[in-house]
Amino acid sequence: MKLVRDTGLLAWRRAQQLLRNPVWLFVSLTVPLLYLALFTPLLKDIPAAPGLGGNVLDEFLPGILALLAFTSGANAGFSTLFELQAGVIERLRVTPASRLALLLGPLVTGMVSMFVFDLLLVAVGVAFGFDVHVPGLLVLAVLLALFYLTMAALSTAIALLTKEITGFAAVVNGVNLPLMLLAGVLLPISLGPSWMGVLAHFNPLYYLVSASRALALDVFSGGALWQAFAVLTPLCALSLAWATRVYRRAVA
User: Fold this and answer.
1) Are 131 and 58 in contact (CB under 8 A)?
2) Do residues 207 and 224 touch, judged by C-beta distance below 8 A?
3) What distance in Å separates the CA atoms of residue 247 and residue 7, rounded to the nearest whole number?
4) Exposed site from 89, 92, 194, 230, fewest CB < 10 Å?
5) C-alpha torsion sign, points 227, 232, 237, 243
6) SS3 sequence of the chain
């Protein structure tokens, strides 16, 4: 019970910080909207390509939702570094708050804000022809939460280990583009050569993108869904366990 209460209080604290920074909220929402507005029209002339068919937006929007989970989680470490350098974490360590809650509170806030952006993106997508299948989107929300928590936990742990923005930013920027391209976020990986398809199977984001596209079409059969859960569930558990260990050492 104490863990839940402490997590809720720390999540609300982080939410208040985000609401005081409207520029961050504006930029976070604008980027995925720009992808929809500027990239989707480029796909309309290749509907017969492998991996693309029917309504292009049904293929592209799920990839953007997966990308938002990836970027939201990967950037979580920046907030941790700002608080570390400002001495906030040093002050929190003398409080009776649960050490696990100190980690989970900001992650919960980030996940809620991600889902708010997801709902806005889906609403905009519907206006342009995206087909909504509620059961598939509900299952997709679980996968998005798993992947966000995985990336946010890893990001927070790496931030605490590097302890400075330059090194952390180098790590995040170094893995951002390869993981995104090898996941088929913007274009299905089937459009690339076979060697890219092989490498993609070592990328957890690839499994999320594949399942996202299937679930957005309300398709529960096939291997994409169970493969995504089989990869992301243990990966999320391992990431949270490692991040908790790193965080407890940092605030011990």
Assistant:
1) yes
2) yes
3) 15
4) 194
5) positive
6) CHHHHHHHHHHHHHHHHHHCCHHHHHHHHHHHHHHHHHHHHHHCCCCCCCCCCCCHHHHHHHHHHHHHHHHHHHCHHHHHHHHHHHCHHHHHCCCCCCHHHHHHHHHHHHHHHHHHHHHHHHHHHHHCCCCCCHHHHHHHHHHHHHHHHHHHHHHHHHHHHHCCHHHHHHHHHHHHHHHHHCCCCCCCHHHCCHHHHHHHCCCHHHHHHHHHHHHHCCCCCCHHHHHHHHHHHHHHHHHHHHHHHHHHHHCC
User: Looking at the predicted structure, is the pLDDT value of residue 121 above 60?
Assistant: yes
Q: Is the pLDDT of residue 102 over 70?
A: yes
Amino acid identity at 168? F
Q: What is the mean pLDDT of residues 101-130?
A: 87
Name the pTM for this structure: 0.89
What are residue 183's phi and psi, to 5 degrees? -100, -10
Q: Which residues contact 167 (CB under 8 A, 6 or more apart)?
A: none
| Model confidence at 17: pLDDT above 60 | yes
